[in-house]
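[step 3/7] fold_predict: job queued, chain A
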Amino acid sequence: MSDSAKKYTLGVRKYINRAKQVARQRDRLIARMKKCRFDTIAVHGLYSVEEMIEKNQGSIIEPAYLSTSEAYRDSDELEAALAYLIPSWVYSRIANPTVYYLEETLALLEGYGFDGETSCLCTGSGLAALFCATDPFLVKRTSSLAEKINFVSGMQCYGGTFQQFSVRRMAEHGIEVRWVKDATNLSEWESRIDENTRFLFGEMPSNPTLSIFDIEKVAKLAHEQGIPLIVDSTVATPALLRPLLHGADIVVHSTTKSLAASGFAVGGAVISRKNIVTNIENDQMRENFALYLKQLPFRDYGPSLSPMNALLTLNDIRTIRQRMAVLSESSMKVAQFLESHPAVSQVDYLGLESNPKHKLAKKYLKLVDSADSKGKELNRYTHLMSFRVNGTAADTRKVFDRFRLIIRATDLGRIKSVATIPAISTHQQQGEEARKCADIPPTMIRLSVGAEDPHDIITDLTYALSMVRAVRG
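[step 4/7] structure written:
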């Protein structure tokens, strides 16, 4: 018995001993599921037949625990739970059984093929996940007022990420974000790092320009400097990319997007490997970052995920590999059509061989558990692309307004095709100068290809793009 356990009453220690038995059972279940293939994990997660029967009255689908709080047998169990000595969810702001099912599934999926252990924290949105993943590193390490905290990020990122970094962090709190304009340039990353840098961050691939970077090289650079690499893998999902396998410490998702294709649920997730690299002296944070978030900062900030949203997301995840395969194949056909269209000046899609980042994308974006005739995993390049209208900003808006099938909305990863003009929507607040640096012109349309027949998507694009010729004529 540990010294910390000895200070508790005999009744509390009884619950602690029972919890150890539960932990051993869970470890055995994790080991069992890690031997399964990706699709099996996506379908079952850690919701076992034993749990269905023994805890949930035989429910074959994970139940939605909508209660705000958990009841306890006596004061000893209450004390053990609130001290985090036993498996417990306590209060839905801190944790929830339904959310656990989602967290355990995502931890296994992001850790698929990874030798180490992974853990996950789910949040109420993708931006909440981004905040939770980055905030613990942005603390002063000394009492010196001269300590100037900074972090390094790829310039090509989601508009909400740009706002959180540039406005909430830098303008309001004086924490400097150092932007990398060309994420493929390792020297540029290296030049931004100094002794006060706390982490490196990048989207892979980015929204909306489909920028990418070499995760292995950037992770190695980060670790040489004693800091973690955080990767937003929202667009790719674990079906196409698992950054932890390539050296990243932490992965962030807006589960609202590609993971929850139905569009019913907003949410976010932070997945970490054990023993991350960091220059912050906090052993608990280093050893199990996601669990540390859940037990301390997350508990105090309260960006919790709704149990219903967790369940809706979990249901969509069950078919994530098949869905990403279909959407990627359709996207390739749409991208090839757009690339050959005279009303389009440029197509940003990583699957096109004309894309200068295609070779690097081919290294990382692979459909999990797939195989070609030689046994190699098949490359698939996600559902997201952007294209630039060969005309003016006004022409672009007219093309956009003529869509009849493609939905005009600030969303992506849906089962339905969705488009937006980033310069006037998702990246509007970024400002013209920053949009220029990120290569987001007013003639760009971002397109997230859905599960419709690609022929019908192309027909809609053909009709919309005919406006460019009509305007010029």
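[step 5/7] annotate
The domain at 320-472 is CATH 3.90.1150.10 (Aspartate Aminotransferase, domain 1).
The mean pLDDT is 95.
exit 0
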